[in-house]
Amino acid sequence: MSFTNSLVKMRGCSMAKVSLESSVNVVAVHDIDLEKALRRLDIYQKLISGTMNCMICEETVNMENLGALMRVNGKVKVICDRPACFSAAMKMSKALKE
């Protein structure tokens, strides 16, 4: 598996790079810019139609419960907004970088 960056929906941030758990870099996107970013990644329609699942818990992810995005092996994967899933995804990305 390869990992590049995560995209995290955060209120009040606009494409700012932040560091979580001291070694995982993410790109934060303000809600206003989120639709544009998702369209650019070609996943907006999939999210609003409910056809994407969390890569951790496999629950359906939509615009209301989108927590983060990760690129794994060149494919965009979604993570729901459950704290346990977000934490697991950050640990996974950290492990993939090592």
Architecture overview:
The protein has 98 residues and is an alpha+beta fold. It has one domain. 31% of the residues lie in helices and 36% in strands. It contains three helices and seven strands, in the order βββααββββα. The strands form two sheets. Strands 2-3-1-6-7 form a five-stranded mixed beta sheet. The N terminus is likely disordered.
Strand order, main sheet: write it out. Answer: 2-3-1-6-7
Poorly predicted ranges: 1-22
Q: Characterize the biggest β-sheet.
A: 5 strands, mixed
Helix content: 25-40%
Q: Give the amount of beta strand, in percent.
A: 35-45%
Round the mean pLDDT to the nearest integer and report it.
77
End-to-end separation in angstroms reads 12 Å
Query: For the CA atoms, what is the radius of gyration?
Result: 12 Å
As for the number of domains, it is 1
Oligomer: single chain
Number of helices: 3
- For the secondary structure, the number of strands is 7
H/E element order: EEEHHEEEEH
Task: Give the helix/strand class.
Answer: alpha+beta
The geometry reads as globular
Question: What distinguishing features does this structure have?
Answer:
single chain, 98 residues, alpha+beta, 5-stranded mixed β-sheet, two-stranded antiparallel sheet, 3 helices, globular, disordered N terminus
Tell me briefly what this model is.
The protein is an alpha+beta fold. The chain is built from 3 helices and 7 strands, in the order βββααββββα.
